[in-house]
Design goal:
This protein has two domains: 146 residues, no CATH class; 81 residues, no CATH class. Helices cover 26% and strands 29% of the residues. The strands form three sheets. Strands 1, 2, 3, 4, 5, 10, 13, 14 and 15 form a nine-stranded mixed beta sheet that branches. Strands 6-9-8-7 form a four-stranded mixed beta sheet, with no helix packed on it. It has 308 residues and is an alpha+beta fold. It is globular, with a radius of gyration of 23 Å.
Length: 308
Amino acid sequence: MRKEHYLLKVLTPLHIGAGQGLGHVDLPIVREAHTNFPYIPGTSLKGALRNLEINRVVRERKKGEKASQLEEKLTDKDKFDPEDRDIVRLAKIFGTAGEVAEQDKETLEEGKEVGAGKVLFLDAFIVLFPVKSAKGIFSLTTCPYVINRFFELLGIDQRVEDVPEGKVKVLSTNGHKNLINDNNNNKLLLEEFVFEAEESEELKKFVELVGTFVEEKNKPRIVCVNDTDFKDFVSNYTEVQTHIKINLDTGTVDRGALWTEEYVPAESVFAFSLVFLEEINYSPPATFHLGGDITTGKGFVKVQRLEV
């Protein structure tokens, strides 16, 4: 068994929905129950990557088949071919339907076909969340809970201490994009909240790991607020858009066709892992689409493997 760790950056606002909302947002994003932090379910990652891999295989085979026809060979017991290497590889990565997995006991015993996939797609949790700043446009915020969770995922034996209320930790105040010098005190204004900045060597390892992914120009934007402030930011400062439907005959809004939809903002960064139960050659593409609203340009992300 081996693990591969990845960072995922939101390039355009991302909506992975939690169904109908009971609050002021009609279509909220999915959130962790215990933290209220946005996250990306492993099922969403697996589904998007499965579709991409099936389409890639279709293009490379050049047999004139459609993606839906190739998918049928993974799900229809009468069409599954254990001698087709492409099909077996897809089955090992993403799994097959239960009926296919049980159709041929002899093939199953030979190990040529699998039921459940041999690659586990873990949920992606938030690592950096962009918040509007009075100086430098925006800051990439994180908190001790998130950093420690990130270190634990990577197996790094290091922890970050809590941040006092009203304070913010930065790796260095020298040349920081977002800090305002006020009588030799470095202040940070995020939305309507004012923080006093303090340098912290604790952030060095974290910034080192995520720095190349967020690009050199964005490394100075990284700040660490306390856990409660971070929870407030990710709960209240996501992107909410209002949508309407136009009546084609009248050119006006259809009655009742007005709704709001929540998005994780661009520049947000998540971390996730793939667990390989067998030696399989697979890695996600550098960029792909997640969630809904692809026709309006939403949900494009990029990923990069973390070398620890």
